[in-house]
Amino acid sequence: RSRRHIEKFYADEMERIGRFPNRARPINTSPHTDTKGELSYQDLAEQIGAFKLAVYQPSAYVIDRQRLDELDSRREAQNFNQKDSERFLVGMMRVNALKRLESSAHALCLTMERTIKKINDLLDKIERYEQGDESPTHELNHGEILPDDDEEDEEFVENRSRNPYRLTELDLPRWTAHLKDDRAMLSAVRDRVAAITPERDGKLQDLKQRIRHKANQPTQNREGQPNRKLLVFTTFKDTARYLYDNLKPLTQELGITMAMVSGDETRATAGDKTFNAILTNFAPMARQRQGRQADANHDIDLLIATDCISEGQNLQDCDTVLNYDIHWNPVRLVQRFGRIDRIGSHNSSVQMVNYWPTDDMEVYLRLQNRVQARMALADLTASGDEDPFSEEDMERDLRFRDAQLLKLREEIPDLDQLDDAPVLADFTLDDFLTQLLRYLERNKDALEAMPPGVYAVTEEDGKAQPGVIFCLRQRNASTDNQHHTASPVHPHYLVYIQSNGVIRYGCGGARNILMTFEAAAAGQTQPITRLCQRFDQETQNGRRMEHYETLLRDCIAQIRQAHHRHQATGLGRSGDADFQLARASEAPRSARDFELVTWLVIKETP
User: Fold this and answer.
1) Which distant-in-sequence residues (6+ apart) come within 8 Å of 80 by Cβ?
2) 326-374 tens-digit pLDDT
3) Compositional bias of type Basic and acidic residues: which residue ranges (predicted)?
4) Is-contact 487 587, C-beta < 8 A?
5) What sign does the CA torsion over 585, 590, 595, 599 have?
6) S-S: 244 plus which of 260, 359, 552, 602, CB 3.0-4.6 Å?
């Protein structure tokens, strides 16, 4: 549940448990990756974008007619085949390499070394085959053509081939040439980042200064007790290990205890090293440490973690979260901060510190906009009549992510304030359904007699800003539950758009829209005559509706964008050959695909 949801529906409990801490404005910094200035983030990012990564896409080199026919049949049946999967995977791997560069030079160096080894092993196998070695089966196993698990962040899952190729089915001379080109390029990048030792690592040095300041000049909680606790998040376990190893001398000097947790590894400089024990020793008050565990000598002040703890953990003894790298999903940053921004915290305020790879946000957004992933998705539409993704959709999605990241530099929003990020509460609308059922019991005949498209006009208040809440029903909605949907009330869509055309809540935020609707309209049983007259004057009694038609088109564009984002998410994470994209005929594409059920106009106060 979001902070705002708790504040509204659990006010009595908050009086008993305590309130939320204040959120300080985020601290944004961009320490140099290389203190000598020899490593350019922009140059390396552009090199990463040029990687072919032929090792991960053997389907591009298939020459066997039967295999080619199988690929064509699969695309015709599912609008997606193994070749498309590999193309998408390569785009994601380029993105992954860029994010590892942003995380640490050490993490990127390991990626380059692992990929080079994979290429070398594959080239050796091809060479043995061409020299007449009959001992191997000459099949490519999963380990030879897929990234190592260590390459993944907590959310990165690649599509695993179920039908490995035999070398006899591939154009080996062309594949070998491309593999060697990749090896040369990867080796050049590896050599550059390998030169960044811990002593030259500007981010690491900046982190050491912040840890030293936190230990020597700690903040104080509401009881006046010093708070030296710092929670450092990183997307990659390789970076987590690197930080733990290189911060150990500093923690010994400062007399503080440190631990590290990732999905499959835990470390600690004192106390029990199990996962739950580390979290309990980091937040003994929040996790109610008792008995033999209650040894203050085991208290942990510095915790380095991957996103394995970004959800569901109470760590509010700590008052500062430091994002050592910026996760590709802005929602994850808010979830990380939610570990310390919790009801009943003993801290009067909580702080987020963000490490960005560059001060120039225009450069950063341009480079991190996952151009290669967008190209991979666009390639999926190169054949056939289906068009699940378009360039316009992808560009709109990238602009949406950009806006979320920029917002996070200025403030820390609730999850439900990230325009199109549905939270669990969005799918539990029981309180609103109860109100609706009661209303239906009393007004069933009147509601059934109402034509589609009815509207009402109400006045703004503190929660409802001028704009329109549209309720639409998708005419061509799929009944297949396997297809991802962007709306908790599918096949209906709710969108709240402000009068200036800014989407306040997209179709994923059904609960917030209904709460806004309730705030603006609850208790209004009769038309507000003066507002209706204003509306009639502005629209010339409904003859001049251009403004509202524009707002409606913008809402439909947002729904289309959200639909494609959900499709892309399922595509990127599925790892399942049975995953199917929604057919274009069942995708929301234009106004013709929707019926306007009702709309609420919220007018500004004169």
Assistant:
1) 74, 380, 571, 579, 580, 581
2) 887 787 888 899 898 888 788 999 999 999 988 877 777 776 664 444 4
3) 130-142
4) no
5) positive
6) 260
Question: What burial class does residue 597 get, using C-beta atoms within 10 Å of its C-beta: 0-12 exposed, 13-18 middle, 19+ buried?
Answer: middle
Which of 587, 575, 397, 388 shows the shortest CA–CA distance to 487? 587
Lowest mean pLDDT among 141-155, 419-433, 467-481: 141-155
What is the distance between the alpha carbons of residues 419 and 129, in angstroms, rounded to a whole number? 54
Dist CA 200 CA 125 (whole Å): 38
Q: Rounded distance, CA 138 to CA 143, Å?
A: 14
pLDDT tens per residue across span 128-177: 888 887 554 456 654 555 555 444 443 433 334 445 778 888 999 999 99
Check: CB of residue 169 under 8 Å from CB of residue 102: no
- Total Cβ atoms within 10 A of residue 318: 24
534: tokens are 């204003």
pTM of the model: 0.69
C-alpha to C-alpha distance for 360 and 67, rounded to whole angstroms:
47
Higher pLDDT, 187 or 366: 187
Evaluate if residue 51 carries a pLDDT over 80: yes
Identity of the residue numbered 150 = D
DSSP letters spanning 406-450: HHHHH----GGGSTT---GGGG--HHHHHHHHHHHHHHHHHHHHS
Q: Specify which of 112-126, 162-176, 392-406 reaches the highest per-range mean pLDDT.
A: 112-126
Name which of 38-47, 132-141, 488-497 the model is least confident about: 132-141
Bridge partners of residue 321, in order along the sequence? 231, 352
CA distance 282 to 270: 11
Q: Which residues are paired to 540 by β-bridges? A: none
C-alpha dihedral sign at 300, 328, 402, 30? positive
H-helix or E-strand containing 350? strand 349-355
DSSP codes, 458-474: EE--SS--SEEEEEEEE
Class of CATH domain 3-30+201-355 = alpha beta
Question: Quick check: 81 and 71 in contact, CB under 8 A?
Answer: yes
Domain ranges within the chain, ordered by starting residue:
3-30+201-355, 41-197, 419-603
Q: How far apart are CA 375 and CA 38, in angstroms?
A: 30
Half-sphere exposure of 8 (CA within 13 A, CB side): 14
Would you say how long the chain is, in residues?
Answer: 606
Compute the CA torsion angle 308, 314, 317, 321 (nearest 10 deg). Answer: 40
Can you read off the two tokens belonging to residue 82? 């193994």
Q: Which two tokens stand for residue 241?
A: 């290990």
Return the residue matching tokens 């448990």. 17
Residue 374: enclosing H or E segment and its boundaries?
helix 371-379
